[in-house]
Amino acid sequence: MAELDADLDRIIPSSVLPPFWAKLVVGFVSLLCFARSYDGDFVFDDSEAIINNKDLRAETPLGDLWHHDFWGSRLSSNTSHKSYRPLTVLTFRINYYLSGGFHPMSFHVINILLHGGISVLMVDVFSVLLGGLQYTSRGRRLNLAPRSSLLAALLFATHPVHTECVAGVVGRADLLGALFFLLSFLGYCKAFRETGNKEGTHSTFWVLLSILLGTVAMLCKEQGITVLGLNAVFDILVIGKLNVLEMVQKVLHKDRSLENIGMLRNGGLLFRMTLLASGGAGVLYMRWKIMGTGPPAFTEVDNPASFADSMLVRAINYNYYYSLNAWLLLCPWWLCFDWSMGCVPLIKSAGDWRVTAPAALWLCLIGLICRALCSEDNHKRRILTLGLGFLIIPFLPASNLFFRVGFVVAERVLYLPSAGFCMLLTFGFGALSKHTKKKKLIAGVVLGILFINILRCMIRSGEWRNEEELFRSALSVCPLNAKVHYNVGKNLADKGHQTAAVRYYRLNPKYVHAMNNLGNILKERNELQEAEELLSLAVQIQPDFAAAWMNLGIVQNSLKRFEAAEQSYRTAIKHRRKYPDCYYNLGRLYADLNRHVDALNAWRNTTVLKPEHSLAWNNMIILLDNTGNLAQAEAVGREALELIPNDHSLMFSLANVLGKSQKYKESEALFLKAIKAHPNAASYHGNLAVLYHRWGHLSLAKKHYEISLQLDPTASGTKENYGLLRRKLEQMQKKDV
To answer: Where, by residue number, does the polypeptide cross the bilayer (predicted)?
Structure first.
């Protein structure tokens, strides 16, 4: 049994040490922590990645998933985030198909189960990292650290920083990436199962399978490829038994015995390193080729430190971000769904007290590295090095060291690095237990941490159940975050509380999305001048903001500034070529200017891009009807109903056209079908009455005129037609008399 396990003897009871029970406890606790989120809504990024993502729908070919990013945009697009996770999107699509639509419960349940499975796998992973790799003669791996692996797995399963990954459906990318990351690592360990760790021997099949699983992890989340780095570190330290300090000393002293170091003579190790390096390089090259147009373009508000002119300012702030991530692992009480947009102000001078945070972080890291390198205890040296490796290596893609990332701090990227933290924390508890006689006190501290973590997970899972609670929970953590105020405002606006929403939007004078939404509210309130000023400023700040250009065009159209409105619409389409709503509004502008052909072309573009755009189809039918093109109007109406067969407004418009063409029977059938779908529409009854009036079915005409006037007594046209019908009926009665 490992030395660390002996130190934890009084902390972890022996009754839960058998592997089955250990995994059962870890699995149960992991599910308990996040079970509260099982019936939550789709929140925050879920709407874009799931609800608005066409890749989840059956009509999108499966092959498109390999050419689109995580959000459903083409990777070749300049606006793509380049987040290439086709296997995660595939699981969303399967989820959507099996649940019969966008039912969030099934999506949440899968996430919770994935976290439970990963936590159980962590028992095996930690047993290797903490106890070493050793197999029986029958090829069964021995768990040499049952206590420490159980404790580390429990700390991982209950860590509150995982809430975003588990309770937010979008976090499935991190969960799947972590799952295949761990399977890749365990597969790499199996490469030495039948060799008994003999020098230079291994199973090439398992090494190649490990690389394949690492590739699968990367296709779920980009972080997954870093498992190849962890496998290499594990191989060198555990299988190759390299003493880094000894090697460095020999290099510095030019010791000739360096040539005799086993690792350098180990052809098997060099072969495995070559496989890992070439496999990783090949996968990364393919990933870069698929990305197409280079790295994504982020804005300053996403990651302000990366836009700082001074390299020193960038370095200080990056290190401050690292310290914030470390603090979230150490004290995960202040959690926020978004840390950008002013949440973490830039450090611009050495006099800022926050520079002490990165200094403290590096003091701790240097201390751990020194212990890892200088310890004479091989077991301690291995645990500290592997713990630091698991903490740092999966975090590297989010570190800004190799490329700019689109966030300041993101709790989701800590899912895998937290395993390294839990490993180091377990080692710390073991060391503390070894040097003190108060074992019960340490056991109480451990139980207290686990209990507090479980409680915090439950509270935080509740906050992730709906957007209102999630956004409001962020106000106390990041009161300077423009995106937090924007999302609170948007949530209020969606519920109809526009006055309250305006107050939150005005807190963000330079956040373009808040300006765009505020401009829309002002437009609806007919405060057009201020709306135009806000939207004009928004497109100045972000010239490629297509939605703001379109909304600016709508406001300018309302102000009768038609040329400026047309230019705004055209600019929006230039920045987003496939923009059906913008083509629709451009068509409305042309209709107002009596440019009928241009209007029809714009609406036709709308329906090509979005065949279910009912308003565009309706406007085409009505315009053709009003201009006397009844045959063309009828053809368009029939085409529209084939695509959207249950749209009552289309039935109504086509029924009007058929009535004018004296196709009374077919027109009547469509009117009745529209009324059945929407029985309280006064105009439907009124126009059906007009049809009966023309057709000569006067009693039916009278009936529907009366129903229409009951629903809308102010309809002057219906009143007039009803009056004409009554006079005609009176004349007929007199004639009969």
So the answer is: 20-38, 112-132, 169-189, 201-219, 225-248, 269-288, 355-374, 386-407, 413-432, 441-459
* Distances 7 to 3, 159, 228, 388, 666 between C-alpha atoms, Å: 7, 23, 32, 21, 86
Under DSSP, the state recorded for 401 is S
Please tell me the predicted confidence (pLDDT) of residue 440.
Answer: 82
Per-residue confidence at 197, pLDDT binned at 50, 70, 90? very low
Q: Which of 73, 68, 117, 110 is nearest to 91 (CA)?
A: 110
- DSSP structural state of residue 595: -
Q: Is the pLDDT of residue 423 over 60?
A: yes
- Nearest CA to 543 out of 522, 521, 518, 568 is that of 568
| CA 472/CA 488 separation, integer angstroms | 7
Token pair for 475: 């106000």
CA distance linking residue 401 with residue 388, whole number of Å: 18
pTM of the model: 0.82
Sign of CA dihedral 477, 479, 482, 486: positive
Which H or E run contains 270? helix 267-291
Rounded average pLDDT over 89-99: 93
390 backbone dihedrals φ, ψ, rounded to 5°: -70, -30
Q: Are 214 and 283 in contact (CB under 8 A)?
A: yes
List CB contacts of 122: < 8 A, sequence separation 6 or more. 26, 152, 153, 156, 157, 182, 419
User: How far apart (Å, rounded) are the C-alpha atoms in residues 392 and 403?
Assistant: 16
Question: What span, in angstroms and rounded, lies between the C-alpha atoms of 272 and 210?
Answer: 11
DSSP per residue, 141-205? BP-S-HHHHHHHHHHHHT-GGGHHHHHSGGGHHHHHHHHHHHHHHHHHHHTTTTTTT-TT---HH
Q: Tell me: the pLDDT tens digits for 591-612?
A: 999 999 999 999 999 999 999 9
196: left (phi over 0), alpha (psi -120 to 50) or beta: left
